[in-house]
Request: fold
Amino acid sequence: MKVIDANGIHYQQLNALIKQTAASGEDDIRVLNVRGQRYIGDGMRGDATITVEGVPGNDMAAFMDGPTIVVKGNAQDAVGNTMNEGKVMIHGHAGDTVGYAMRGGTIFIRDDVGYRVGIHMKEYEDKVPAIVIGGKAGDFFGEYMAGGILILLGMGLYPDEPIVGNYCGTGMHGGVIYIRGQVDKYRLGKEADVRPIDDKDQKVLGMYVEQFADHFGYDAEDILSGTFTKLIPFGKRPYGKLYS
Amino acid sequence: MISYVLPEFLVMRDENRCIQCQVCVRQCANDVHYLDEKDGKVKADDAKCVNCQRCVTFCPTHALTIIPNPQEFKANANWTKKAITEVQKQAESGAVILTSMGNPQEYPIYWDKIVLNASQVTNPSIDPLREPMELKTYLGRKPDKLEFDEKGRLITKLTPQLVLNVPIMFSAMSFGSISLNACESLARAATELGIYYNTGEGGLHSSLYRYGKNTIAQVASGRFGVHANYLNAGAALEIKIGQGAKPGIGGHLPGEKVGAEVSATRMIPEGSDAISPAPHHDIYSIEDLRQLIYALKEATNYTKPVSVKIAAVHNVAAIASGIARAGADIIAIDGFRGGTGAAPLRIRDNVGIPIEMAIAAVDTRLKEEGIRHQVSVVAAGSIRNSADIIKAIALGADAVYIATSALIAIGCHMCQKCNTGKCNWGIATQDPQLVKRLNPNIGARRLVNLVTAWEHEIKEMLGGMGINSIESLRGNREMLRGVGLTQKELDILGIKAAGE
Reply:
């Protein structure tokens, strides 16, 4: 294990240090006193585990291609931006645009997320990215989604507090969104179709929820005992008739 | 519903010349020509013709001519044939009219209202046939000052630069909008010429990674095919914010163009629409742009210059200043004549400003702010010949992007139907039968020929002005004069009127 103290270090220096450490063969890197430094894990390959103590800045795990990042705290915007492979676990909240155009790997967030989460996520053959969120999500959840899996668990909500904001799944043309409980129809984009959960969905949910529960100390069965709403796109060509 | 839309073109077949060989039938992907079984004669359905001239070129007896349909409506300066036809089309389809290539409307072409200087008597012109002429161009941020140690060695750390043998690059065209053979033609030509081509937003096909040294890899709002290998494959990265043909809107590659190869390169399922949102959803401000610029620099360990491409719009100078301050190494500005594989007609024909005005305004503004050296400026959006390039550089550009002229070089006949995917020249199509009509060896040869010819013309024009280095022309507006322009236009272009 190698410990890096991020106290007072500019992100360029910090990230160079993390990359050097990983390149030297160290696969357990702990970064302490992180206070908003951006781009941690950006473009990194390999299979190192980076544990971040503090609050990492924007674009953490952007373009990341393999490593695991564990954040012991909240994260800011654009976690896993265009991420290709690897795993991110956030023991707290995350900001806007988590997993924008994400292509692969998984992101687990214990609490809530902001706007535009999972926007334009993709998938190709067996490369299917997934984001599991313990709390609630803001507007434009899964907007323009082209593939992948979004799971929203809605734990810790106040009574009658909405689990998701407006325009959920607007422009969706691929992938699947699972939301625990019911979602008011008016919150959905017109490209998102509500479908019943089948056995295959149960399996997918079971697999991701178990991992989520493992990481954050929840009871998976408890979470899975609730009902889920499944959203898939009406078609993979939402705007096919708009142009001629 | 009977269509009221008249055929745009008529196919004229000289029956005395036609030998009924059916080459035209086989060449036309629009199914215009057909053999009439009843009388054994080749005939044509004019309504399907797009005037791409594939049949005209391949007819062995030159029996074919395509002419505009001479049928006119009652004369009306306001309700022109075009205006009426467009209403008819939309009344039948209920859809946004889609079109391709650059804005063809009759706006002023400022290139044609600017003339160049030449030496007479008081300073000698230079003959490029007997004297060296430097066209080498470096794109990227330049240092504020250079520092040396006591032994005269440079200690200033230089930022990465693109090195161009000629100040010309092939502009972004994605694999998907154009064929793999078209991409390969551009890549090979760029390699041979010592310049760069740009992947566009469709990722990089696995067979094209070997041209990485001469590749600019684009990152657009859909982030198609963007991953660590892709980011590291090219010599530079380009964030696409906007495009001259469709400022302010995203792009939809229709599902029918997303076959197996495009699907694998973009990493989306076959037959799915490839939708690029209008904005990057991680960029809602100049500060956010800076965030993505540095995310890309971090991902590539500061080894590659990052370009930001925008459409030329009203406040382009202020926007460019923001982009420079956001840390871009290159700003590419695409004027309203810039081409596209597909754009809504109303947007293409009505949004954006001329590149000539934009380049002059940006260069002036960056100089006024003392930051011109921090960023290179690339002009795009209908560079038709070498004189346009000379004028663009004298107005303040470092280099130009060409795309429409590059496609014309490899066979495009400007029929403006790229969006249909039925390009008979094998360029804007993914149909394997059509794609193989374009041989990348011949495509590359034609592109190398074009740029080589322009290179010599640039040298001759430079020599005529008594200049032996393209560096000395950059922003040198003394070399330009305006003809038939208003004082306001001259002021914006920063040039004098002819005779002054």
